[in-house]
Amino acid sequence: xxxxxxxxxxxxxxxxxxxxxxxxxxxxxxxxxxxxxxxxxxxxxxxxxxxxxxxxxxxxxxxxxxxxxxxxxxxxxxxxxxxxxxxxxxxxxxxxxxxxxxxxxxxxxxxxxxxxxxxxxxxxxxxxxxxxxxxxxxxxxxxxxxxxxxxxxxxxxxxxxxxxxxxxxxxxxxxxxxxxxxxxxxxxxxxxxxxxxxxxxxxxxxxxxxxxxxxxxxxxxxxxxxxxxxxxxxxxxxxxxxxxxxxxxxxxxxxxxxxxxxxxxxxxxxxxxxxxxxxxxxxxxxxxxxxxxxxxxxxxxxxxxxxxxxxxxxxxxxxxxxxxxxxxxxxxxxxxxxxxxxxxxxxxxxxxxxxxxxxxxxxxxxxxxxxxxxxxxxxxxxxxxxxxxxxxxxxxxxxxxxxxxxxxxxxxxxxxxxxxxxxxxxxxxxxxxxxxxxxxxxxxxxxxxxxxxxxxxxxxxxxxxxxxxxxxxxxxxxxxxxxxxxxxxxxxxxxxxxxxxxxxxxxxxxxxxxxxxxxxxxxxxxxxxxxxxxxxxxxxxxxxxxxxxxxxxxxxxxxxxxxxxxxxxxxxxxxxxxxxxxxxxxxxxxxxxxxxxxxxxxxxxxxxxxxxxxxxxxxxxxxxxxxxxxxxxxxxxxxxxxxxxxxxxxxxxxxxxxxxxxxxxxxxxxxxxxxxxxxxxxxxxxxxxxxxxxxxxxxxxxxxxxxxxxxxxxxxxxxxxxxxxxxxxxxxxxxxxxxxxxxxxxxxxxxxxxxxxx
Length: 758
Prior knowledge:
This protein is α+β, with helices and mostly antiparallel strands. It has helices at residues 2-16, 18-36, 42-49, 55-60, 66-71, 79-95, 98-105, 110-118, 137-148, 152-159, 166-173, 176-187, 319-331, 334-356, 368-396, 402-427, 429-432, 441-452, 457-472, 477-484, 489-520, 534-558, 566-591, 599-623, 627-637, 649-659, 664-669, 680-693, 695-707, 716-725, 731-748; strands at 193-196, 212-220, 223-238, 245-253, 264-273, 279-284, 294-305, 358-359, 362-363. The strands form 2 sheets. Strands 1, 2, 3, 4, 5, 6 and 7 form a 7-stranded mixed β-sheet that branches. A two-stranded antiparallel ribbon has the order 8-9. A hairpin with a 2-residue loop joins strand 8 and strand 9 (362-363). Residues 471-753 form the Acyl-CoA dehydrogenase C-terminal bacterial-type domain. Its EC number is 1.3.8.7, 1.3.8.8.
């Protein structure tokens, strides 16, 4: 006992007496920290510093403030935004024939292009004073989602001008002259924008773009002015084939020192009319049979004046930071909107098909194998819409949460892929026969496009989410890095000492509380609500502490190597991601009034995220390099084992029951799915409603056939007629059953083509 007391006193003295602490702990740790500090390129540093820390910071804290989550405003459309949805969006959707667009014309009809321009679909984010709509991020997202359920080509065409592009960059960084020149013409559709960043040699590594702009004197409008001699080759540029104004990213050089001593100024963005001398609109791409405009652009020795740099000369070399900040906002709107639309469409149509399609004499939705996939569609759709709402809501708070939007982009596109695959599996042959009435095929073809753009998913998961999150969202690491970079070593050490002591307390608190909550299954943890969701808040708080302590240890043990240990860091990124996804589900459930019908979907989504968190931790522990540290960490986070599991069959069956019943809940779950009365979606929905209305009569008919009252050998039509003739059915019921069966047969039919028609 006396030895323990002596040791305790020694530890207290070491930490309490500053001079001793500095010599024995802080100074050696400071030297080690500077040595293991991961080297950052200029582009990495700018990406790290760009954007805002938001709810992701709470999730990294180990003790999220759930009341803060509840206090975030509920994302809602304004009256004018709702009116636009009811008028212009509905009108546009009625104009679209996606089969004609994709399979025949390979383009939107002229009348659709004209309507998009004149009605301000390209000006959703442009202020009203310039002639734009000035809509919120949630409205922008909702409009794109709704259009996407009818035509991915039209949705992408609307999405791009309102995402990363000249409009966004001009609003944030443009000079007054540039805004006055370009924003009105972009708003009224006179000009169509595109933005060129990606090239043959620079995709995810945008910092390596070879495109150049050299400062020199040249002629412009008959005068000698200082400007840039540009050379570029870009590809994968959406709207490039039809754009009238080109946003261009390039590296800027000043070899003759015309602007100062700096020879390499860095990535710069400029705005160039596509009819400017030397600008060449190149060949068109054809991304997976999709008809949205996408192609190449080139320029050789193109001279532009310096004031064509977005933001003017003072923004020379600031292009990468501008792009990262704008891409962060756009990434939280565009692809999440498309992914949520996949869920809305797949949920509405697949739930209908599961009722309408029959095999072995019953609806396929009664087979548990189908129910498992249908429940996954419904549960993930609820999560997709939750994430869409909360992420777009963050942007409407005038934030640019780069980590959160990277999470949304990666996980929503991957969930969208899962949902679409399940929908295709359930539709089977009907899903793969392309034709005017196939509502899944073009979305299925477009899924890989979403996976690859705005940061390929592999890059986003393995480098961006944890790479930025661990540094930006951690309460101490970025500050410690800043202290290590200070030139005054004594001042740096003093600042580092204070941060280190707080960091140690932070880590010790998280480790001890993670262990306690692990032993007690978070029974004594606090939750901001009562009821069936309270346990989820407790479990997510526990996993937040687990993430915090594992992150600290991984960064301490691996240092700069963690940057290259992508499999390790990505798994911690998965933990953070699913903490965020589950948070959005809880937020939506509260915002929408804790509706009882939502509970199976809430449970499915959160239990799925907790399972994925458990799997990510398993992978982290299994592959962490130091076996002793690994053993200790595993016992801290999961002292009695990892007991997270996939959602139960009971929850899955409850979801299927809700999805296959017409009514308020199903409509809420799929409210963004456009049902076209003259196309496949309308045919399927009408058949679903008709079959549901007559389900009791069809059930009776099946029972009569089993008992022998109606011959079992008769098909449905024959059985209905036999039951009518034998007074088992009234005429009105027989007529309604015939009508429902006619719609059913029409719904399960697939498109056929005559010889030579294709």
